[in-house]
Every structure is written in C-alpha cells, then in structure tokens.
Amino acid sequence: IDNKKVFLIVDEAHSFGVMGKDHLGLFNVKELAQKCVARIIGYGKSLGFAGAAVVGSAVLKKYLVNFCRSFIYSTALPLYHYQVLALLYEVLLHSSHKQHQLLKQHINFYLSLIENRKNFSKNNSPIQYFRINEEHYQNIQHTLIENKIFAKVILPPTVPKGAERVRISLHSFNTTDEISHLVRTLQTFEND
Q1: Are 33 and 27 in contact (CB under 8 A)?
Q2: Distances (CA, A) of 69 to 60, 72, 77, 79, 181
Q3: What mean pLDDT do residues 77-106 have?
Q4: Do 42 and 18 meet the contact criterion of CB atoms below 8 Å apart?
Q5: How many of the other CB atoms lie within 10 Å of CB of 15?
C-alpha cells in the first residue's frame, strides 16, 4: 500500500470478560493496544448489560468528544448506566479464577463433542454457532424451545443470506449434560 497508513480497529465483543490479561480482551496488553487506533468493548455479552466503549488514544478521545452525537446532543447515557458499569468492572476484575477455568473446560468439552461435525463452528470462544438452512429455521427454533435450550436462530439481515445459524453461548454455569444435550439436539438437523 503506497504511502498509505492502515489503522487497526479491534472489536473485543467476544473476548472482553473471558480472554486476555485480566479477562479484559485479547488486545489488553500494552504492546498490542498500542498497535490499535481503537478497541471496541461491548458490555452486552460477558457483562450481561448494555452499551459499549471505544478505547483509544487521547486524540481519538478528543475527536469522539467533539463529534460524537451522544456527547453533543441529549442522547448521552444516564449516570446510573456508568455506575452499573463501574460495579460490573469490579465484579469482572475480582471474579473467581475458578469460573474462568470452568468456562474454558466447557469450551474444550464442547469442541471435543463437535470435533468431526460439519455444521458446528470450532473456535476457542464461548460464542459458537450451528449452520442451518433458512427454510428449516422455524422447526429448529421450535425444537430448541421444546428441549429447553436457550439458543436463538439468527437470520438475515443480522447475518448474510446463506449464513443462517443458531447462536450458541456457553457459560461457566452450564453443565456438561446441558452441553451434550445441546449438541445431540442440533445434530438431528445436521443433514438438512
């Protein structure tokens, strides 16, 4: 790329709270953070709350403060939102190592169950998916509900056409029996 700069923006939505140093995301180390112009931290996943933050340089912060609508207009978040986030950060930073280890064990267990399965995603994250054919989504969603599985079918426009899926979120509080039940239930739709 001739004399052009490339800027790295990292979305930590699936890593914040579960991966990296202090579980604050994969790029939460000085050497990597300095390579990013911005990191996006989502609070709707591991913290179970709402909103997001942009982490970056003082120049980026100044730009956002001066040009971001939520600072200019009256759409800024209420004070209690920031107070809840501060408490959630405390919980995250002081959460037990045991919970994070259990989550990692559950991810590994899930991966061992789906090792040779074609429709299941295979990554090192608690967020996984199962590929489906769009025409069967109602049947799949009904079967999940019937089997007391809280997983949602995701359709266009949330994902591109042809990339329909069941979104799977593994948690430290899940049991291996629940994970096995999930995989067995979804396997019945694998050849659709």
Answers
A1: yes
A2: 15, 5, 11, 17, 46
A3: 90
A4: no
A5: 25
